[in-house]
Design brief:
The protein has one domain. It is elongated. By secondary structure, the protein is mostly helical. The longest helix has 28 residues. The chain contains six helices and no strands.
Length: 108
């Protein structure tokens, strides 16, 4: 996981083809990336909550190696946008579009 580069060149046609619109595809990927990011943040916060202390002692902060290892693990994970893009390109995402009539009725 840590060996994956953070910047990968993507074929725009592969992103375009599932929806027929590049911008719709990007919106789908970004919404999925946001979901992944929120889930990971909650998971990390839950794990780090075990280490929360009410005393601010510098010695305790530097001695807590387990907390540092947990944080480093999450830092090395692939970015949520990369994961969401891979899921989209592999066809693992289910999505639905709003009907055009529903949007037109709201605009009036």
């Amino acid at each position: 996981m840590a060996n994956q580069p953070s910047i990968i060149t993507r074929d725009v046609d592969k992103i375009y083809s599932p929806t027929g619109n590049l911008y719709e595809s990007v919106v789908i990927i970004s919404k999925r990336a946001r979901q992944i990011s929120i889930n990971l943040k909650e998971e990390l916060n839950n794990k780090l909550a075990d280490f929360a202390t009410t005393v601010d002692n510098l010695e305790e902060v530097f001695e807590n190696r387990e907390q540092i290892e947990i944080s480093k693990f999450y830092e090395r994970m692939p970015k949520s946008t990369t994961t969401a893009t891979e899921e989209f390109l592999e066809g693992k995402l289910r999505y639905r579009m709003r009907e055009a009539g529903a949007e037109a009725a709201k605009a009036e």
